[in-house]
Every structure is written in structure tokens, then in C-alpha cells.
Amino acid sequence: MICGLAGSGDGIRNRTEVSLGALRKAAALLQQGATVSEAAEKVGFDGLSYFARCFKDQFSISPSAYLLAHKGA
């Protein structure tokens, strides 16, 4: 499992597995100029904080820092 979270509530996937493909697609969307919110939504995340945590767990950088680093790339 890449990033999973037990519990329930709005925007949180309950004991689910986030695919590496979804996070890679989100990274590509950020490189293409999508906002962090847009990228998270387009790959199926309801909660922005959960998306940010999973993204950082996978890429060792927050999605907003990734966006800044790849802006105009």
C-alpha cells in the first residue's frame, strides 16, 4: 500500500490503497499547470490534505512545492 488511512470522514478513503499511477498522473497534471486542487480532484481524491500526504509520502516533496519546482518545465 502506498498511502492508506483508517477512519472515516469527508474526503478520506477508508482503508484504501492509492495507486502509484494516480499519483504519477497527478504529478504530470501539476507539470502541465494544474493547481494542486485540480490535480487531486482529477485523479480521484476528495480530500486535499490526504492527497498532499500521499503525494509527499511517494515523492518526498509536497504537491505545492512540486508545482513550484516544475512551473514552466
TrEMBL record:
Record keywords, A-Z: DNA-binding, Transcription, Transcription regulation
Keyword presence, Transcription regulation: yes
A Pfam cross-reference name: HTH_18
InterPro entries: Homeodomain-like_sf, HTH_AraC, Tscrpt_reg_AraC-type_HTH
PROSITE patterns cross-referenced by the UniProt entry: HTH_ARAC_FAMILY_2
Domain of life: Bacteria
All copies of domain HTH araC/xylS-type, residue ranges: 23-69
A molecular function (GO) term: sequence-specific DNA binding
Record's keyword annotation contains Manganese: no
Protein name: Helix-turn-helix domain-containing protein
